[in-house]
Amino acid sequence: MNMSNEVKMVIGISVITLILVVGAAFLFGGNSSSTSQQSTQPIKNANILIRNTSAEINNHSKVTLVEFGDFECPACGAEYPVVTQILQNYKGKINYVFRNFPLPQHANAPEAAEAAEAAKAQGNFFGMFNLLYQNQNTWGGASDPTSYFVTYAKALHLNTKQFESDVKSKKYNNVIQQDINDGYAVNVNATPTFFLNGVPMVGVLPYSDFQTAIDKDLQK
Asked: Phi, psi (5° rounding) for residue 126?
């Protein structure tokens, strides 16, 4: 084999490798994210982030933190303590908005989103929000997650008959789908994805990243 043929073979292998890498990126896109990514450019239409939401709102706040999350996503579960710390330390100072973004690889995530919305309808979204993340390893992957969700509803003193009926009938499917559609509209493809005053922050991020950004925006 002469040198030109060897060069051609190397080039051919490189091209094939590049095609495989690009193909894998498309194939596995949209998964939960465990890496830290940040952009400094806010989205152009921030209003899309906060419609049909479950939220803690202070109308006088300069800061709005929106999360697109999946209750069965391990990365979201890992970030949950950070979110909890933010809500505790900035209570009454910022707006926090949660949007459902169940990923297709998490079989129980859509039903968990239904459970959160059914609890919201009875005035206790954040109670269910907390229990879903705190017990993610228990109901995640279970063959019958509804039984766990009903137990959580009982603990929250909800009307369990109504709650169970809402979850099983997928009563809030349209609300959840609107969250998903809005997520796609602002290029969400992994969970958790946050928008702090419209600026995306993606992945499992330390509390200090949020603290720095929030404090800066509060001082504006």
From this structure: -70, -25
196 and 210 Cβ atoms separated by less than 8 Å: yes
Interhelix angle for 173-185 vs 109-121, to 10°?
A: 110
Cα–Cα distance for residue pair 180/185, rounded to 1 Å:
9
Give the tokens for residue 208.
Answer: 């200090």
- Residue length, the chain? 220
Mean pLDDT by runs of 10 across the 220 residues of the chain is: 44 41 36 53 74 72 93 98 97 93 97 97 96 98 96 98 98 96 94 96 97 95
CA distance 176 to 135: 21
3-state secondary structure the chain: CCHHHHHHHHHHHHHHHHHHHHHHHHHHCCCCCCCCEECCCCCCCHHHHCCCCEEECCCCCCCEEEEEECCCCHHHHHHHHHHHHHHHHCCCCCEEEEEECCCCCCCCHHHHHHHHHHHHHCCCHHHHHHHHHHCHHHHCCCCCHHHHHHHHHHHCCCCHHHHHHHHHCCCCHHHHHHHHHHHHHCCCCCCCEEEECCEEEECCCCHHHHHHHHHHHHCC
